[in-house]
Design a protein that fits this description.
The structure is a homohexamer.
Chain A (H helix, E strand, L loop, with lengths): L1 E3 L14 H12 L4 H13 L5 H28 L5 H10 L1 H7 L7 H8 L1 H5 L26 H23 L5 H31 L22 E4 L25 E4 L44
Parallel strand pairs in A: 2-3
Helix pairs in contact in A: 1-3, 1-8, 2-3, 2-8, 3-9, 4-5, 8-9
């Protein structure tokens, strides 16, 4: 069960409205790597966690924090689209070339007009507020969430999501000079720093519990006679630039003692595919080199009437 | 530019048709973590890579291999739905309880009928072949692909995708006793093993190039006065199970010398949000404690006609 | 900011695993009218609410409760797919014709096998747990959420969502005889009862604050000379069954004193559309009754090369 | 069966092309609450209606009118993107600050260029015409439509959709000074007025047929011992602003004689969830406090090969 | 404007309920190539048609007929899920092996139970009626519709959609022995026959108006020095099976007098791509052969704070 | 299996960065009719082709070429967003009114800023690179791909896709004066010319193999007593403009000797639909002319508790 505290976890309001920035912040809210994604992902992983209690609780505590981040960003976007004094905004646009260029030299403080020109749905649908979608207006999708039941696989995805998420937040941070927005984003970027570290630590803890524990699922090792496929890099491009990387040369990181091998111009090991004829009731095109004399090329089961 | 070799990279045909298994294999083909996803992801990362040539080439070589994996799985699914001798299938269903249970004791070899009963679209739309969708028939989405331009962030996502992908392949491997399918899947599971190792090696190489290099983007460090937010675990649940994990106790893995700290019952640091009134032309509900005497509660700019 | 309590708001575990029921419960979790939808909708409406504080707080309190409902359903689905004693399940299937029929007479307690046969993604992707999608495996979409900034419009949508939601929960309730599941669903159905009442009360309160206050947005009345379009029912089908309903006969519910009117066989009031030629650079097909002698039918601006 | 009349139901052409406005109108055409949504929703509810004939016919008559609204908006959008005299448009932009600001001071009449700069797909894909998508270019989705078979639930959703729809049309109305567009939109806003009234009347008629008839589905009352959950407001936020609303204080609107009750700081009634181990063939992470001596932490059923 | 006739264009009710068939019919209703797609596509092409009036009217007349096909299929699906006498259904299942196999030997006439076991959303969401989605429950998407403004391009797509549509209808026709369903589908298959012919005739008429008129857009011919790329088949696979087809050998069908040419093992004509460094504010990974001594590898513009 | 050649098939780099053009090119890359669509469609059709080897190989050779087109467009988009000298871009914008108008008179060469103002996700998510989505940021969908197993149906769709694709490429070609971009696009437009011809030739070859071979599936002819429905044009609009087209007058193109017929004001042939009551456990609204005396209107099976 959850409870709500009316205060935000951290927040400094924007100095000035800026619909362009509000649109950019939608990516951090409802994009693939945004706060809704990590909120739902950590909560779903936590709600269904069969591992030790400390994993379940950790997932739910961070997931709970992320609900608050959705709250912070929703607040920020709403305030970035409220009316603000005309003069202040103009002054800012003039004194700062970066912001000025983004704003296209417009001298209106009306964020509604900016929205109408740039992302009309945030005005028409959301009345000047955020939506559960990304900065292109594409809706957030439940398909962005993974909770596989395998914590090592999932924590790696969490680490990946936080890496993309902090990267995106830093990019948005660079799109504004608004001190309020920058302060709020800075807090979130620091929390993303912590969360990256956190999943990194958790991943390392899980890896160290298994032997060799780096390949998910750890219970499944090599198949009889197929071990060599697990260490060969198939060189399928001309040139060999890729042959010198850590992934193609030197010991494999699974502590197996095996070394990577770079295969130059490897041969295909399988056959050219052959198919049996399909079910005639599906009317697929079957193999037939030429047209028969009677014009009938397929045996049909009779369920459909013969041609007139 | 690409070239095609008519042979498959590796392949053993199924012993017997099995539409249920064909549907399961759709997850490996067109699911979020399936072969279409990794194919498109590695190709897009490679096509746009601004890093050293070895990264670009490595990405494109693996991406090229993945096109071949899409080919293998498409072949497998098509063959799993072609007609096969009745007796053989029945014998298998009877002798193997796992398969028998999945098949529901059906004694028909007609994969078309199974499809019609389970996933009609694979019969009606694809004529007994694969679709670019997952095992629920949800279409694959371009939103599954990330190519951010930041290789460390992207390689972590690649590692995450391969971890989920091998996990899923192993689960499907356990759903059948067909020796042909098992042999083909075993090859793919071994290649997934290799790819997990491979991204792991690449991630470690990139991390070792920076200092501290584990937090993406590495160029951005801490913000003035906000460093503490990067190492505190906010305990937002009752109980402290999560306080004992590697993420909440001990040194942070960024080699900064900082230690994690578990905050028990932390207080919110932000205010209760306040909003200015929105643009009246958007007809949002404004704050108003009670209804005014004249029935008019909002100043409208006059563009719309007054009420009758 | 949010906090988590490790206990569930209410819960009785299922007596027995049942993958079919787990799939049905996905509709209540991640369908258009499921718990994720109302959770996100109330939270987003609350986070951005510019109305009186009591509305904001009410939205956030109910939204917070709904996070707990997502937790309950996720727990339920996970437990419906865990292993359970064979004998108990079989006994149930035999003694209860409804459940027996749904289960197809299967005598296996293995929910994993049921999943593999019915909704493979819940086994392959989620490892026997819930997903953020509906009972067909279609992902939940952020487009399901509305937070328009106009509380009367939004509360009506909330009432509609709760009406559909309780209806769906009652339908699922009827699909099982498991006393644990029924007890948990009964609690949720009662809460849905309360939430329907609650939005109904809130809608009535908002309607009573305006005059006439039933048509959103209330600030906009009739347009000069167009008032009659607001009370006429256009009879566009043969027959006049619809002429006798409350919507076509009697006083309109806006307290305007106007009465509805049923128009039988109304005439179109507009013209046949005419279009100017489009931009030739877009190569649309322009109006041309016949082919000119020289074979050139469109003036092109010259940006593209002439035909050879 | 349907028939078409070449004339539009009502229409005044735009005075001048305006691609920005055309994009905004896409929300009214193909957005979640646009004309395609209500058209499809009323038609589907009507096609499948099992209630009294008057409901079926009413649904189909309004649904049929809505096809004509899709026609009107498609005509409008197409005309908003056709070429028009340069001088007229410039004059308008200069004399009207609102329009001028939206247009960014551009003095070109070329709607194609505006589209290319703002919503390229309407030029590239649709050749200067509308698409079946919203103002962000997100495709309309069949998931927007509900036809549940329960008319009270569906009519409430219809009322909600018309409320959002009229709100959005009024917002777009405020974005232009084009007298043609305003006249056409005014007609549609009046029809939306009528449709809101109409569903309101239908909802009230249905509610009055049952006792108590306000909670869907009306056939289902309270569960033994759980009635109290139907009238309690769970106060899950700090503070009690929400305690004073109609939803938390006073008689419930179901005519049951029960009163709402506000629960301050309510306790969770359920347990902390516990899960049985999952099927080992799914390779989920099981509860295990520490690593066993032999490095093997999970009993696997043997279907997969042991680790090397 | 549209009008509705209460009678269906053509219809014979099903002899017996059959939820499996109802699910299959969803593909014909709401799949990519279903009736909703062609209805919306022809209407949108007609609403926006700038070509001669006969094209516009033809599009709208067929589009209007398709609304009636959506009505017929919705009626069919609803009736396929209504209750029917138990005995009749059992008799049918026993006497007909095809139907019996699909039904899995179930002896219940309760289509609701079948739905609950196969496509729960049609019971839970739609109350035993159709949805605007395909046979997998994936929602219909506005992205399926094309109305490009170029009639030749669009008519070709119409022909393609009708080809797939009739193919799918024939496949569903083969899945049942219900005489009512077969009679209704037979009518639709005949109408699909007519529509294929119809678009074929329209395509040929448009092609004959231009010279050479087969390549869209016809206004654009060859580019200086690039004509040869328009007739060469690039042989990018090993082997030359494809060299003998009409597409690689003989005169091109554009009446240009040019012949196709098969290029065996063609060489790439372009360079290896090179990228300039990206904007440092986006934190992409730049080309850098080795790690600099000071650990700083990127010049950042200073907007973000230096690392601690 | 596939192999990669590091060189592009053909390529001339852009003279200057242009984020607006980069966004437009996204439609050619990841739109419904873009290169990802044809790549995936031809590959899937080829991977599963059961027809003669020459069809399979032809499909895979063209599909393989299309992977290279995805590569070319990805390269182009990435280069269109890299930094370029300020002066050059400004000069271009000033000297060319078309480009100048699109650019809105901006004098900055920073493509990043343009992106931030127009399509922020390409900066924030993709770091100044392409995404697998269209020019509105909507993700590419696997639902765009058809591989039905029937080659005539599929080749017609291929022809339709290439027709739309070349049309779109020509439109984008007209949006720029950059000689590099124009040269690269010209190559692609020529290849699209070849591909249109190619599918046209293949379609004609397949049609000539059957008799009458123009209606898919060719195995299914007319149904007893329903042949007339295959040649009648139902005139469902007022007026008879459509009666004079090739589709309504003259011989049908199926070589059957039948002629088209235009039906003026045709009558519906079916009944008004009637539905049996639905399953009461689904709580649909049943037909009931008035409210019974006891307030109970539906017989429920007893699974749910009676109302209090």
């Amino acid at each position: 069960m959850f409870r709500h505290d009316k205060r935000l976890q951290y927040y400094t309001p924007p100095e000035s409205p800026d619909a362009h920035l509000a649109v950019a912040c939608q990516e951090l809210l409802g994009g693939h790597y945004g706060e809704v994604s990590v909120m739902m992902q950590y909560l779903m992983q936590g709600f269904t966690c069969k591992g030790a209690p400390k994993y379940r609780d950790m997932l739910l505590e961070i997931g709970t924090e992320e609900i608050g981040h959705v709250e912070m960003l929703s607040t920020l976007i709403t305030q970035l689209m409220a009316k603000a004094p005309l003069e202040e905004k103009d002054a800012m646009a003039k004194s700062n070339p970066l912001v000025g260029a983004i704003m296209g030299g417009k001298n209106s403080s009306e964020a509604t007009l900016e929205l109408a020109a740039m992302m009309p749905s945030m005005a028409i649908v959301a009345g000047g507020g955020p939506r559960v979608s990304d900065s292109s207006g594409s809706p957030w999708s439940g398909a962005f969430v993974i909770a596989s039941g395998n914590l090592l696989a999932d924590f790696r995805d969490n680490l990946a999501k936080e890496s993309q998420g902090r990267l995106q937040a830093c990019r948005v941070y660079n799109m504004t000079d608004d001190r309020g927005v920058k302060d709020t984003l800075a807090f979130m970027i620091e929390r993303d720093y912590e969360h990256q570290l956190h999943w990194l630590a958790a991943v390392r803890e899980l890896e160290s519990l298994e032997e060799p524990g780096v390949v998910v699922p750890v219970e499944v090792g090599h198949f009889e006679g197929k071990e060599r496929f697990a260490y060969d890099f198939w060189g399928l491009s001309n040139g060999t630039d890729a042959a010198t990387g850590a992934w193609a040369d030197g010991p494999a990181p699974d502590d197996s003692g095996n070394a990577f091998r770079y295969l130059k111009e490897p041969e295909a090991l399988g056959p050219v595919p052959e198919f049996a004829p399909g079910d005639p009731r599906l009317f697929g095109t079957q193999k037939r080199p030429k047209k028969p004399a009677d014009g009938k090329t397929t045996e049909v089961d009779g369920a459909l009437p013969a041609k007139a």
